[in-house]
Amino acid sequence: MTGGTRRRIVVSTLAEARFFADGGFDDILYAYPLPFDKLEECASLAERLESFHVLVDSSEALALLKRRRLSPGKLWKVWLKIDCQNGRAGLSNTDPAALELARAIAEAPTELLGIYAHCGNSYSCRGVSEIQSVAQATTLCTLNFMDKLREAGLACGSVSSIGSTPSCSHPVPEMARLKEVHPGNYIFYDVQQMMIGSCQLEDVAVRVLTRVIGHYPHRNQLLVDCGWTGLSLHSLGQLPTGYALVEGHPNLKLVGMTQEHGRIEPTTGELDFSKYPLGSLLALIPYHACATAAMHPLYYVHSQGQLVATWKPVRGW
Amino acid sequence: MTGGTRRRIVVSTLAEARFFADGGFDDILYAYPLPFDKLEECASLAERLESFHVLVDSSEALALLKRRRLSPGKLWKVWLKIDCQNGRAGLSNTDPAALELARAIAEAPTELLGIYAHCGNSYSCRGVSEIQSVAQATTLCTLNFMDKLREAGLACGSVSSIGSTPSCSHPVPEMARLKEVHPGNYIFYDVQQMMIGSCQLEDVAVRVLTRVIGHYPHRNQLLVDCGWTGLSLHSLGQLPTGYALVEGHPNLKLVGMTQEHGRIEPTTGELDFSKYPLGSLLALIPYHACATAAMHPLYYVHSQGQLVATWKPVRGW
Questions:
Q1: pLDDT attached to residue B29
Q2: Which stretch of DSSP H or E encloses residue B264?
Q3: Residue by residue, what is the 3-state secondary structure of chain A?
Q4: Cβ pairs A/B, distance under 8 A
Q5: A82 and A145 in contact (C-beta within 8 Å)?
Q6: B91 pLDDT band (50/70/90 cuts)?
Q7: ipTM of this predicted complex?
Q8: Binding-face residues of A in 188-217 toward B, CB within 8 A
Q9: N or C: which end of chain A has fewer CB within 10 A?
Q10: In the predicted structure, residue B260 carries a pLDDT above the cut 80
Q11: Which of the residues B56, B62, B82, B218 would you substitute to probe the A interface, choosing the one with the greatest number of A C-beta atoms within 10 Å?
Q12: What is the distance between the alpha carbons of residues B284 and B298, in angstroms, rounded to a whole number?
């Protein structure tokens, strides 16, 4: 994914940052509002790596960085987070405080490295047109802010980045003027992204294999050995097929899950239990790959029907 | 919890069974419909322990056990799962096949050890009266089935067990006639159990500490560093206070979570940000302790304000 460079990645936890640093990666952005209890861990990564970046959206966080100077020759590399109608982290792009904070970051011992916006509001879109509308709005919002920086004489060193899997799956021409994009979910994609319009079902590269463990004709249901510890509850059961898609069986609905059990019934009609013998496997296509992946200690990587690798995910913080 | 005996426990995964076996526990019931791919792992535990029990609710699963004999002197110790209106695993208690399966289990090389019913339907109750109604119905259903066993000459060795945290929190007198009960969530309790009526808020012994990482007056919200990786989505946000309770702050509502972020706003009025400084801690009381606990690699155990232990949970299967 980095073309062999092991450079220019974004992480959302310090556990991920440490993992990648240990693996020889550098130029790592910890794209998360600087947690006040993790300043020393950030400093350690900033000292250790050539280019470790933090993100701030408050003068209080910046003050922390200014008080905790790095060793001579090192400056904190800082991104300013702005909020372009997403409503999670970031100073509103129209708030004069955003430009003021950019100016304050640009003063030593910190370096204003870039402007970061996340268009998570693309997750409420349905279809390419709505996605592109959000992508364009966030891009223009960010580019306009970059213009304001230049007008204020703060341009040097600043790069711009926006992202979300929906918007980066259907980029608009204006995005070519950004320096970076930062999607994440596209590695696997999932049913949620398919419903949003980011991808097609055949693009989804993650499955949870589950085994049939019970036949209950009196209630027209079968039981599988995947509960929410194996899938998460993230669709809230609201798909036409419940909590997931059952690959190759569009007539099946995962109607409920408890910790280690999943209940499946037909969307209509009587279940033909002979098609799903006890002990046989079904493949669930998750609604939210990130949430499902977070439940597993090991991933089995397949290519052309062969197991080619196992991956251990980084969890925790 | 076992009074020092390290005996008579119920697990829902083989990972848990192995963990407890390694810790010197015995008399372990793996209360899960025998998964066809895990027969050898079960056999290994059955050989290794004095008393490892499996659970079946199909003749196919029993056939597997009969084909995989244990070493001389060892019999598979088997519980029959019956379904008393819960609608998850188990043969319906009124299905003649249940008694037939009990008879088949009682034949060597398997031993009919007990009858097991789970009253998970108590989770849809509100208040003690509704809980006790389910507890009583499940108890009588199970005891009646035990009577049928005796009438069929199959009584010997059979014990009975029902359970769920709500029903075992408010036991009915009839439950004294059961040999065992098997609740689980009561160890922590949680907001869900409080809503059901199993416990009071002060009984809930689990918290997720989270740190304030953002102030956003323009939308009357603050951000905390707990997303669904730290809490799960299990309340679906439907509590009056959203996805959790914020301890000591009944006016706060956790309105949304993404992977690593939580958004909090007041239930009414304007947020007084000075009460929640950046970097300060809030304590979230989870909706579903099992789901929240499943997200963490380590628990910090407190007593009277002191950290007295750390626990590593068993995850996986």
A1: 98
A2: strand B262-266
A3: CCCCCCEEEEECCHHHHHHHHHCCCEEEEEEEECCHHHHHHHHHHHHHCCCEEEEECCHHHHHHHHHCCCCCCCCEEEEEEEECCCCCCCEECCCHHHHHHHHHHCCCCEEEEEEEEECHHHHHCCCHHHHHHHHHHHHHHHHHHHHHHHHCCCCCCCEEEEECHHHHHCCCHHHHHCCEECCCHHHCCCHHHHHHCCCCHHHCCCCEEEEEEEEEHHHCEEEECCCHHHHCCCCCCCECCECEEECCCCCEEEEEECCCCEEEEECCCCCCHHHCCCCCEEEEEECCHHHHHCCCCCEEEEECCEEEEEECCCCCC
A4: 115
A5: yes
A6: very high
A7: 0.95
A8: 211, 213-216
A9: N
A10: yes
A11: B218
A12: 17
**Residue of A58, A92, A315 lying closest to B218 (CB–CB):** A92
Over residues A38-61, the mean pLDDT reads: 97
User: What whole-number distance in Å separates Cα of residue B132 and Cα of residue A240?
Assistant: 35
**% pLDDT > 90, chain A:** 97
Using CA atoms, how far apart are residues A285 and A247, in angstroms rounded to an integer?
Answer: 6
Query: What is the rounded CA–CA span in Å between residue A72 and residue B283?
Result: 39
Question: For tokens 């196919």, what's the residue?
Answer: B60
3-state secondary structure of B96: helix
CB contact under 8 A, B13 and A261: no
Beta carbons of B220 and B265 less than 8 angstroms apart: yes
Give the residue from A102, A115, A17 showing the smallest Cα distance to A62: A102
A-chain CB neighbours of B216 within 8 Å are: 83
Provide the terminal-to-terminal Cα distance of chain A, rounded to the nearest Å. Answer: 23
A237 in contact with B, Cβ within 8 Å: no
Instruction: Name the one residue in this structure whose structure tokens are 């204003």.
Output: A112
What separation in angstroms does the CA of B235 have from each of A214, B193, B210, B252?
A: 28, 12, 18, 16
pLDDT tens sequence across B129-145: 999 999 999 999 999 99
Cross-chain residue pair A33–B297, CB shorter than 8 Å: no
What was the pLDDT predicted at A155?
73
- Interface list for B 151-190 with A (CB within 8 A): none
When pLDDT is averaged across residues A245-273 and rounded to a whole number, the result is 98
A-contacting residues in B 77-96 (Cβ below 8 Å): 83, 87-89, 92, 95
- Cα B220 to its chain centre, rounded Å, is 37
The average confidence (pLDDT) of chain A is 96
Which tens digit of pLDDT belongs to each residue from B286-314? Answer: 999 999 999 999 999 999 999 999 999 99
pLDDT of residue A271: 98
What lies within 8 Å, CB to CB, of B225 at 6+ separation is A32, A35, B210, B211, B213, B260, B261, B262
Confidence band, pLDDT 50/70/90 cuts, at residue B259: very high
Q: Which residue among B216, B218, B225 places its CB closest to the CB of A35?
A: B225
- Are A285 and A192 within 8 A, CB to CB? no
Interatomic CA distance for residues B94 and B302, integer angstroms: 47
